[in-house]
Amino acid sequence: MSAAGSGGSADALLEVRDLEVEYVRGTGAVRVLDGVTLTISPGESLGVVGESGVGKTVLVRAILGLLDPPWRVVRGTVSYRGLNLLAQPEAALQQLRGKEIALTTHEPRKHLNPVATIGDQMARVVQAHRRASRTEARASAIELLRLVGIPDPELRLLAYPHELSGGMCQRVVIAMALAHSPKLLMGDEPTAGLDVTISLQILDLMRDLVRDFHSSLLLVSRDLGVVAHYCQRVAVMYAGQIVEVADVPTFFTGAIHPYSRRLLRAAAAATTDRRGPLSSVGSRAERGGAGCPYAPRCPLCLERCIREAPSLDPIGPARWVRCFRHGEIAAGLQEVP
Q1: Do residues 193 and 208 make contact, with C-beta atoms less than 8 angstroms apart?
Q2: Domains defined along the chain, listed by start
Q3: pLDDT tens across 121-171, in order?
Q4: CA distances to 46, 143, 260 from 315, in Å
């Protein structure tokens, strides 16, 4: 796949190219990310979707340089504004994290110190990347809490994390992430475990703040409905690879890769049958062999698919698919059972 493969690199804010990550264990190394390439432009929102275990969280952590042994980056580049993050020392990455690139996850309490007040923790975040007195940091913290819709922010500064609900803790983490107006906000299943009403409020908040701060959004989710509503483009992951990239309207009206189509059908079944997201696509993806990793589960598998791995090929404006039979599927000559 070319540098422009996921949306063009000329004006890219973030560009991941040929990223390969392994998990080293006693019996050998397991390839978790296998040549991932994608880009995000300034002001753009990209959703990364796929089942649990396909490598979405590993991708986010690799971008931020947060993978420690037994994880290792084998090859590839992660460029932020032209700077290869994988070649930077930890001190330089610490200056970028929180200031230029911020992360929210589905476990906000893990980001909060249980024995420190919200005010103390937010003050440290504010002071991490700019000179500010204690009074100035507190004033900024109050404004940030107000910005994310927390009532009585002056009182919340005195609270400890255990005194706040899960949704409130998530808002606090988002407030911390926005303390320095980052240009890229990454959300790794940021609303998992929250009820539907709170989830929608959090997602609406992230979308509005990204727009108001003129930032970009990388949203990792297993919920295609969330991506359809909050993202402009979608990248589908399977077994550590990007298998399809398209703008949201094109993807939801004409997904091509057999895995993408099964995801859409599973999402529809989840809505009708009240099951969890992506519940009917099968077991956890495992990468192995020389051929297409989806071949063992693909109803359109050819002998070639077992022997040879397809590349992520451009098939139209800002559109890419990793499948030998994409032409037949797009033309309606093959239907995915």
Answers
A1: no
A2: 14-89+219-330 (3.40.50.300)
A3: 999 999 988 889 999 999 999 999 998 889 999 999 999 999 999 899 999
A4: 19, 47, 15
